Every structure is written in C-alpha cells, then in structure tokens.
Amino acid sequence: MAKEIHEQPEVVGHTLAHYLDMGSEKVALPTKLPFDFKKLDRVSISACGTAYYAGLVAKYWFERFARLPVEIDVASEFRYREAPFQPGNLAIFVSQSGETADTLATLRYAREQKQHVLSVVNVPTSTIARESDAVMPTLAGPEIGVASTKAFTCQLSVLVCLAIAAGRARGVLSEEDERKLVRALVEVPRLMSEALRVEPQVEALARDLAKSRDVLYLGRGTAYPLALEGALKLKEISYIHAEGYAAGELKHGPIALIDETMPVIVIAPFDRVFDKTVSNMQEVAARGGKIILIGDQRAEHESAIRFFKAITMPDMAADFAAIPYAVPVQMLAYHTAVVMGKDVDQPRNLAKSVTVE
Ligand code: G6P
User: Which pTM was predicted?
Assistant: First the structure.
C-alpha cells in the first residue's frame, strides 16, 4: 500500500498525459465517443467502494463544468431499484478490477435500458471493459493492495478530463476556460509529490489517532467524498470505527458524538465553501472536539481556530484539490494501521475484487 501511495504522482502523470494534449492545453480523449455530450440530459454513475467515491467527486465536476445532472449510486442499490433511464443517455461505470459483480450487473441493466455505456477501468481486458461501448483506461498499473489508492486518484484524473470534455462539447466552458483548467490539471502530479512530503506530520498524527475508538471525517464540496473515502480507508485497514459526513450535516446528528476525546478530521482546502466549513469547525471547537485540519496555510490562518493538529498541504487551485488531498487521507489510514500493528495489505475479511454478490 505504501508503494502504491508513493507511485501516485507518476501514475496520475501518465494517466493525465494520456487524456490531455499539453501543447494545445486541451483535453484529448484517447477514444472517440460513441455519443454526443450535447445530446445528453443526464448521466448516471455507478460503482462500489472507493470507485464509488471517485464517481461522487465526478458528480461535482460534471454538474459544475458541463451543467449535466448526475445521478450516482452504489451499484448494489442501482441494480435492484429499477431506476428509470431515458434512452440515449450516458451510464458511467468506475471499477479498478473491471470485475465487480454488482457493477457489472448494473452495466447490463443500463444496457437493457438503452444507455450508452462508458467504463473507467484499470484492467482493459476485464469483463466490464469488454462489455462497454467506450473504455477510458486508468493507467495506474497493477494495484495489489486491497485498499485502493492509486486506482482512485487515476479514476479521478480520467473523470475530470471527461467532465471538461463534456463542458466544452456542451458550450459551457470556453476554449479559454478549458486551457485554464488544463493548465491547473497539469500541476496535479507535482502537487501530489509535494503532498507526499507531509508524511512525517501524518505519521506523528497517526500515533495519536491509533488510540481512538471513533473518528469523524468532515468535508464539503469535493472534499465530502474524500471524507467518506478517508473514513472507509481507516476502518478497512485499522479497524477503528470511522464515519465520513458532509460538514453541513454535522448539526443533524454527529455533533452529538463530539467530546474532548473525539478526533474530527476536517478536509478543507481553501475553496469557495471554506467559510462554511469554518463555521462547522467552530461548532466542533465549542464542544471541545479535537480538530485535525487537512488544509493549506491560508485555511489554517484564516479560520482562526485552535487545531489539535494541522496537516499543511501546498497551495493549489481548488477545482482539482480532491486529487492531491487524497494523498494525506490515504497516508493517515496507512500509518494508523501500521502503528497498530495491522496487516495493511491483507485486511481481515476484505477482498481485492468482489466477483460474487
Ligand atoms: C473491494 C475493494 C475496494 C474497491 C471495491 C470496488 O471492496 O476492497 O478497494 O474499491 O472492491 O472494486 P473495483 O475493482 O470495482 O474498483
């Protein structure tokens, strides 16, 4: 898992290079699409586990950059709830292995419902890839660790390129908007390398986190799916109970759990919803909660909150912060599990690829 976390700047760099034309600063998809983004009025995304959270981040990107409504659900729910589809729309499936049983079943259902089927997969020979109308590969290389890391950030990289391509095709983004976005995207691998340098801070924090019984993760916007992913990673490999919440939902339940012993990890890059997250942190602080901020220097200074600890990320364009911010989130779960003496690569009861229902 450590190796795969550290490979991310490189594999995300490869993946982005496959989808971007750096010379013209445009998205250049490697495969011709068998549909027209202009003609779509809805996209559905389904996946399981970490791949589902990649899809949840993509929802924010598709809706923002392409003004395309996105419906997203875990494949195990999508497949049985007889969701109505308008024929001719797009169904996206995200899967590292390309063999997950629920995701594959949902793909077949979407096909019956006359959707264009596009998959984002890491294994190009997989069943999901073979049964898709268009395949957008992630170039993560083989992923061995049961807890997905580099496949996740590569999925995000592919999905953001698709969302920008959709935005251009639908006339929501101008050529100049696209150039600006691509210029920011090209920085992502370097930002991920810088993010890896926060590892000593993360390791120190992990020693403390390892003593916790429960951990709460909060985030807004694209940091919300990251909060879910952070909680998933921590429980998968350290067996500490963790929950991810949209920061704004704090007062609708999890606030009742907060006391001096409860670590609350707030993933908050300095973005347009940062102020809102600050008010949630104040609510936690007022109840003596232990706030751990994963944010940049501006976020630390402008929030004027006393953090228990802060992981300081490099400054970056907020649009794609979810990709570099995945790095400290993964490292935190990894180091906590290592401190606790757990086998991070073979967590109990979990399988790398779930090919049965
Ligand atoms: C399992 C793995 C996860 C993975 C999920 C979906 O639960 O342990 O790491 O995210 O399956 O797998 P897929 O291959 O479809 O991405």
Answer: 0.97
